[in-house]
Design a protein that fits this description.
The protein contains 12 helices and no strands. By secondary structure, it is mostly helical. It is globular.
């Protein structure tokens, strides 16, 4: 995971989603997540997946960086599906739900700066938890740089990993142990600095207002439409089961139109 790419997209991006209020995007994410949870129809979940892909394509977001991150949960979901799913259709539904939920979360993180996400969450989380999440943001970059230096040192000292696998494994283990100790020391130093600067148990981050109210309304309307569709197919599944292909076909058309528009604007 390249944290720098994620942060660059969230901070420097200029899409419509970047101009929406963080609180609006969190609400839309919650509605989409609810639609994934309540849905028991594979076609409906896939329709949500392709709708998110169409949004990514239309907004010209870095799909090459986003899609691998969204695919990671598929590995764990596949293990769970293999152990508990009664048939292949149920297994596919479990995996599709995991990937779609991850894709929604990745879209949120790539279009919203990390501090702004937790500025909205601070209102509902305890002060210590909110502050820890905010400070984690800075620590991730410091630890990523440290890990890169340690990895480079391991390669230089261990030589070719194929020729000396045991020596390379030992060096890597020692490097990770050093990184763990460094992270503990870093957290203590960060806390000491906060105390010296007058930390009193709460770091306040001002929420950024929306610069595109139209985008806010469109996001909420789209998320509500997705949730209503999933709820209708969940409640009236007997009546609508023969029409499950319609939301999926509509999402595929939206994706095709978004890809065509993106290629034309290049």
């Amino acid at each position: 995971m390249d944290v720098a790419v994620l942060d660059r997209s969230a901070v420097s991006g200029n899409s419509h989603l970047h101009h929406a209020a963080p609180r609006t995007k969190l609400l839309a994410f919650a509605l989409v997540l609810a639609s994934i949870v309540v849905s028991t129809n594979l076609f409906i979940v896939l329709a949500v997946t392709f709708a998110l892909l169409a949004l990514i394509a239309a907004e010209r977001l870095p799909a090459r960086s986003m899609l691998p991150l969204a695919a990671y949960p598929a590995l764990f979901a596949a293990v769970f599906a293999f152990a508990s799913a009664p048939d292949a259709l149920a297994a596919a539904l479990i995996i599709a739900k995991a990937v779609t939920a991850a894709l929604a979360a990745v879209t949120l993180m790539f279009t919203t700066p990390y501090p702004q996400v937790f500025a909205a969450l601070q209102r509902v989380t305890p002060g210590l938890v909110g502050d820890a999440l905010l400070m984690t943001y800075r620590a991730i970059f410091l630890l990523a740089d440290k890990l890169a230096d340690l990895t480079r040192a391991v390669r230089l000292r261990a030589g070719l990993s194929g020729a000396h696998p045991i020596r390379s494994a030992k060096a890597t283990t020692r490097a990770l142990g050093g990184l763990l100790l460094y992270s503990l020391d870093l957290s203590q130093r960060e806390y000491d600095v906060l105390v010296l600067r007058g930390y009193s148990g709460r770091l306040k981050v001002a929420e950024r207002p929306s610069t595109s109210p139209r985008t806010d309304r469109a996001l909420i309307a789209g998320a509500v439409a997705i949730l209503l569709t999933a709820a209708l197919w969940r409640v009236y599944w007997i009546s609508f089961i023969d029409y499950s292909w319609m939301p999926l076909a509509f999402a595929l058309l939206c994706l095709a139109a978004a890809l065509l528009l993106r290629r034309r604007n290049r």
